[in-house]
Amino acid sequence: MNDVFEPADVSSVFLFPEKSLLDRQEAARELGISNRMMLALIALRCGPPSLKIRSKTLWRREDIGLFRQTWMATVHVDDRDRTARLATTRTRGPEEPDPLMRVLGQRTIRHRVVLTVFWTMGIIGGLMSLILF
Questions:
Q1: pTM, entire model
Q2: Looking at the DSSP assignment, which residues form a beta bridge with residue 122?
Q3: Distance (Å, whole) CA 59 – CA 24
Q4: pLDDT tens sequence across 30-84
Q5: Which residues span the membrane (predicted)?
Q6: How far is 28 from 21, CA to CA, in rounded Å?
Q7: How far is CA 95 from the centre of its chain?
Q8: DSSP string, 54-107
Q9: Cα separation of 96 and 89, whole Å?
């Protein structure tokens, strides 16, 4: 009877599986950007691919990692080579966004806005020329 109530071995380590589906705040933190920038990426449809489960939008951790690598590949930077980021993460804290990811996010948003404006101007100009001639 006492065998059932014996205390477990204190030196045991339990590993729990990592959460694979992230909400918006967690995805932004994993990507290294602010929540507002994540909202802008979602609104402009230039963010990481998402899943819609019922009425909730979720992101896979693997997709966030691939999206981050894609952003860094555009400027020829490897995450392993960013020793400055690792040093500042310890002093800055995990809640502050990564400066490189912030700049890359701004670049992506600016690129999408410029493309949208040019396409809109082309379509409106084409419609005006059809109407006038």
A1: 0.71
A2: none
A3: 8
A4: 999 999 999 999 999 999 999 999 999 999 999 999 999 999 998 888 877 766 5
A5: 113-132
A6: 13
A7: 14
A8: TTEEEEEHHHHHHHHHHHHHHTT--GGG-HHHHHHHHHH-TTSPPHHHHHHHHH
A9: 9
